[in-house]
Amino acid sequence: MRALAFVLLCLGACNETQPAQPTGPVPDSVSPKDSPMQYKVLADVVNTQANTVEYHVLVADQPKHDDVEQLLKFLYRHLMTRREPAPSSMEAAVYSNEAQYKTPPRSPIASVTQKSGELGPTFDNKVPLEFWQQIDVALQPHNDKGWKLERKVERDDPGKSLTITVPYTEPGKDEWAEKLSYNQAMVVFTDTAKQLFEGVPELRAMKFVGKYKDADVVNISLDRTDYQALKIPEIEEQIGALHGRAFLELSTGKGTDASVAKANTQRMAAIYKKMLAQLKGKATVSPSLK
């Protein structure tokens, strides 16, 4: 009896000194070693009954867009595979300072989510592209890489400016345009300026050089204030209205094809010349362009 009492007493003492074992999944506290960016875990909330996870992480300030993009992909794989079964829904948010997390409403710089029933994740990366990337994206519609007459871009990254040299070529061909008119040259300029200033938020100023048969026929410099003053979208509307006017004149017999085309060309040129006059000496066009 004494021996049995001693055993029971020992068992009771052992049970009292053993720490309580954790129940449920253990939350992350640091970023895994294979993460493309090191981060601090602000919150790792797992609801085992609903099988959901909410994950918030802090990275170093001013991260690069591509680095954050890789981190989002990593977080998605990490959260969907670290335990079985995979979460039925998940949300991971990335912050570059704790105020973004602690101040409601929260304002993550990037996130990846997958709601229940969705087939794949949704990525949202608010970190701006780098200057050179913004330029590449803005000019993407043009497929002239490797051409003999390829456009050339010279960047000034610290000054957030650039010089773009554009050869006037036949559409879709690596050869000079057979003919080049003043209006055609201006259409290429306005299209390029609009692409760059609208597509490159960090762009402060640009220089446009239009080249035809190895001669610089257009040379225009403008900053963002100049661009906004030109109101190129309004000019495009005016040009469109002129084309509509020309069509109406032809359809109502108010001129021949030649006379209507000549009048329309002159009206377009007048609009473009008025536009360039606003740049006050920062634009030159070769007199050979008619």
Helices and strands in order:
Elements: H1 2-17, E1 40-47, E2 52-58, H2 65-81, E3 89-95, H3 98-102, E4 110-114, E5 122-125, H4 131-138, E6 152-156, E7 161-167, H5 182-199, E8 205-212, E9 215-223, H6 224-230, H7 232-251, H8 257-277, E10 283-285
Parallel strand pairs: 2-3, 7-8
Antiparallel strand pairs: 1-2, 3-4, 4-5, 6-7, 8-9, 9-10
What is the global morphology? elongated
**Percent of residues in beta strands?**
15-25%
Q: How would you classify the helix and strand content by structural class? A: alpha+beta
Run of helices and strands? HEEHEHEEHEEHEEHHHE
- Give the fraction of residues assigned to helices: 25-40%
Radius of gyration: 32 Å
The chain-level mean pLDDT equals 91
Strand order within the widest sheet?
A: 1-2-3-4-5
End-to-end span in angstroms? 118 Å
Largest sheet: 5 strands, mixed
Q: Pick out the low-confidence regions.
A: 1-11
How many runs of DSSP E, i.e. beta strands? Answer: 10
Number of domains: 2
Number of helices: 8
